[in-house]
Design goal:
There is one protein chain. By secondary structure, the chain is an all-beta fold. The protein has strands spanning about 5-10, 15-20, 30, 35-50, 55-60, 75-80, 90-95, 105, 110-120, 130-140. The chain starts with a strand and ends with a strand.
Amino acid sequence: MGAEVGGVGGSAIIGQSYIIKPANNTIHLAIGAAAAMELLGILLDCSLNPGEDVTLRIWDYDSTGADPTVGVTDAELWVRGKRGKTDPDNLFWFTTGDDEKGWVFGSGDYRIAAACVQQKGGTGGATSPSGIVVAHLFFA
């Protein structure tokens, strides 16, 4: 099962966005960069997934270590998406305090890994959503 992973130019506010389609229980190495980047927000488009709520798990990925395992490896960040919904219900912005910084990742080769699973499995769930979920990740 393949996935489209790619970057597109953003606006003056958001430097880059990456799309993972379909977002499922397969580990997607979504982002590669030359230096640490800030994840500002995530939009989970669950409009074609009416069956169940989902959880998108994200790991700060370092290729010199072991790959994360869905349902086993604790994620550094996770967000929950509501079934059948998209913006604004499943739009999440990450800012901290007055400095408006997002989630900075940057271990090793500056990549993150992501996987999307049914929420009913809790933090240890490993089952793909029954419908199509598209994850949009927005970076500074």
